[in-house]
Amino acid sequence: MRVLHVASEVFPFSRSGGLGDVLAALPVTQARLGAEVTVVSPWYAALSGTPEEVWRGEVPGVGLVWAGEVREGGVRFLFVGLPEFERPGLYHPDDVERFCAFGRAVLPVLQALDLRPDVLHGHDWQAGLVVAHAHLAGWRTAFTIHNLQYQGRWNLAEARGWTGLPDWAFSPEGVEFHGDLNLMKAGLVFAGQVTTVSPTYAREITTPRYGEGLEGLLVRLTLEGRLSGILNGLDQDRWDPRTDPDVLPYADAAGKAANGAALRAEFGLDGAPLLGVVSRLADQKGMDLLIEALPELVDHWNVVVLGGGDPLLTAALTGWAYHPRVAFVSGLNEGLAHRVYAGADAFAMPSRFEPCGLSQMIAMRYGTLPVVRETGGLVDTVPHDVGFQFAEATAGALAAACREARTTFGDTVEWRARLERGMTLDFSWDGPARQYLDLYGKL
After folding, report:
1. CB atoms within 10 A of CB 194
2. Where does ADP-alpha-D-glucose bind (predicted)?
3. What is the three-state SS of the chain?
4. Is the dihedral of CA 387, 389, 395, 396 positive or negative?
């Protein structure tokens, strides 16, 4: 089967979060299972190196476009170069216009290269317009929602000319959404099959609480048999405490203890158990709840937080840096993230919603027990005999779950049993990759 993925980022070339991680692992796994896989993504000016150029030409309505390729892990990575992406960084305020240009350029590039897959699989709103144009060209299409909150909306009167879509598409049944162009909706409307990244999130987004205004359309897709949830996997080679070069390698609780001691020494923390956080600093992730709960948490835990995002949340956490049991590092730091997963005893994820989440899987693989809110992929991945769950998105509920975890930590036998069960869970991509290949078969 010839599969073509389209996404705005793919690790290790470009990455801002979990989307890039998925596009690093899923295509490689599908290729190992026998599929012929290509991944298409923009070439950002910030990327290092130069892909081998395979095409250059004019695309109507877009302008000069070039394409280059890199082959790794049995996958062909095809990068599309556009003037709109020749600036620092990945994402910008005018991204709807930029990804409309990308959305119009992809099919002409593929056609020029005589590359037509059996299935084109778009990921998140940045690929929504590609899915629409592929459907209109008669291609089979799938589309995955990684986070419904981000939809790629822009005033329709201004954005209409950016898309290259026919007039009939600009209706409530098409890409129009409350007077805006909505590129997430474009993917949902035009895809033959739609998935989300966990079964629980697939159910949640059909409700007003989580549907972000699109719940009516998503209910319809469910009734038509076109919406399902396939749980993300984890790159278990990249995230393996036995071989991780950023930590003191270990395979059991005894080896993990050395990493805890190293993390305490790194930040000058005392002997209390460690509660780790590696997260975007955003309301979605419940970081305000964590900050509100800190006065109680520090009575029982050392708290190590790594993350960047909302300036107000960053400032609030910076204000806690004086406390001898709190360590906060702002921004992205891959090596430190690995050390937090390895050195922490428990890992907090108080998300208001969580389409899937990778951090809880990584934490358990590293013997770190998650304290999570009961939502989305956190429900589907954290067993009750490993981690700790709480229902309400409140600081009090988070603090209560952390109290339960701290009490359990005092029972050495029980804690070690939970730790060892977590380290043996299988989150590999083989199962999800096969589910996607089966889904393509429906098309």
Report:
1. 26
2. 15
3. CEEEEECCCCCCCCCCCHHHHHHHHHHHHHHHCCCEEEEEEECCCCCCCCCEEEEEEEECCCEEEEEEEEEECCEEEEEEECHHHCCCCCCCCCHHHHHHHHHHHHHHHHHHCCCCCCEEEEECHHHHHHHHHHHHCCCCEEEEECCCCCCCEEEHHHHHHHHCCCHHHCCCCCCEECCEEEHHHHHHHHCCEEEECCHHHHHHCCCCCCCCCCHHHHHHHHHCCCEEECCCCCCCCCCCCCCCCCCCCCCCHHHHHHHHHHHHHHHCCCCCCEEEEECCECHHHCHHHHHHHHHHHCCCCEEEEEECECHHHHHHHHCCCCCCCEEEEECCCHHHHHHHHHHCCEEEECCCCCCCCCHHHHHHHCCCEEEEECCHHHHHHCCCCCCEEECCCCHHHHHHHHHHHHHHHCCHHHHHHHHHHHHCCCCCCHHHHHHHHHHHHHC
4. negative
- Scan for tokens 């975890």, then name that residue: 405
Mean pLDDT over 99-121 rounds to: 97
Residue list for the binding site: 15
Supply the angle between the helices 412-423 and 395-409 in degrees, to the nearest 10.
110
Q: For residue 96, give Cα distances in angstroms to 85, 93, 154.
A: 12, 8, 7
Evaluate if residue 151 carries a pLDDT over 80.
Answer: yes
- What are the structural domains of the chain? 2-233+430-442 (3.40.50.2000), 253-423 (3.40.50.2000)
Looking at residue 203, its pLDDT comes to: 97
**Which residues are annotated as part of the binding site for ADP-alpha-D-glucose?**
15
d(CA 393, CA 40): 37
- Could you give the CA distance from residue 67 to residue 117 in angstroms, rounded to a whole number? 17
